[in-house]
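Quick review question:
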């Protein structure tokens, strides 16, 4: 008869083998992950990844067996492991491509100015009208329904959301918060990525890279550092400087003769203008 301990050892070995053969192994935080979002990402990643959910202690043993000790610091509390064969950055982006919208809770900090837009609602007249007005919403009766007369700011960015406001937003089916998949750590080919690194703002990254390129190019031009990107403008700069010196020092070169003649003419005019004319 197979004991419970043998079953656990077999499961640890099974998970460990899966971890060893995976290109990417990531830790997922289940504590902050609603079941609806878990089911959603399982469906979306079905062809690319697999989520392994077992007791954290068992998963820790599997990580040790697979020699992935670098992920152990994140294995505290309710955690799961995800194995995939795709780039960790693409994986993180795909998991969080469609964050789950949720209602506000009293005391939560507003992520931005929360504004209830003007317009009709499906709410019938009644006590709800007073509740909405108490939350700072311009509520009124219109066409037998409750309507919002004008855009109403109910919580400023950075402020704690009041209980009456949270209830009003829920009644209006406004979900101002987004729940995302938290990935404390991810491992690929000996490299461990934190969530801060995985959560890349592509537009900002491109802007930073572009800015960095032009700054580096400007410095290279200033100090005369030759690269494939600076060789042509440096040669143009050197040519302009040499031409300027040639004209300044009256160096007789074929390509400078026209400018030297103009310079001589200007000097002659200046001398002529300074000599008193005979009466």
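Suggested answer, residue by residue:
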């Amino acid at each position: 008869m197979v004991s419970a301990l043998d079953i656990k050892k077999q499961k640890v070995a099974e998970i460990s083998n899966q971890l060893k053969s995976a290109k990417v192994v990531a830790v997922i935080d289940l504590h902050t992950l609603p079941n609806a979002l878990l089911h959603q990402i399982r469906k979306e990643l079905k062809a690319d990844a697999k989520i392994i959910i077992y007791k954290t202690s068992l998963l820790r043993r599997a990580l040790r067996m697979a020699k992935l000790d670098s992920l152990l610091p994140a294995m505290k509390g309710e955690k799961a492991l995800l194995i995939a064969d795709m780039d960790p950055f693409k994986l993180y982006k795909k998991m969080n491509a469609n964050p789950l919208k949720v209602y506000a809770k009293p005391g939560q900090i507003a992520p931005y100015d929360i504004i209830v837009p003007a317009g009709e609602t499906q709410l019938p007249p009644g006590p709800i009208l007073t509740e909405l007005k108490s939350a700072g919403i311009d509520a009124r009766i219109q066409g037998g329904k409750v309507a919002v007369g004008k855009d109403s700011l109910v919580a400023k960015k950075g402020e704690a959301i009041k209980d009456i406001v949270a209830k009003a937003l829920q009644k209006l089916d406004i979900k101002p918060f987004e729940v995302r998949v938290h990935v404390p750590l991810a491992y690929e080919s000996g490299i461990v990525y934190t969530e801060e690194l995985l959560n890349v703002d592509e537009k900002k990254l491109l802007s930073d890279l572009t800015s960095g390129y032009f700054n580096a190019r400007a410095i290279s031009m200033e100090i005369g550092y030759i690269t494939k990107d600076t060789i042509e403008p440096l040669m143009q700069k050197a040519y302009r400087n040499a031409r300027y010196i040639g004209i300044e020092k009256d160096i007789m070169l074929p390509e400078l003769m026209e400018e030297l003649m103009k310079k001589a003419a200007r000097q002659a005019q200046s001398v002529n203008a300074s000599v008193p004319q005979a009466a």
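Why it works: The radius of gyration is 35 Å. The CA atoms of residues 27 and 81 lie 5 Å apart.
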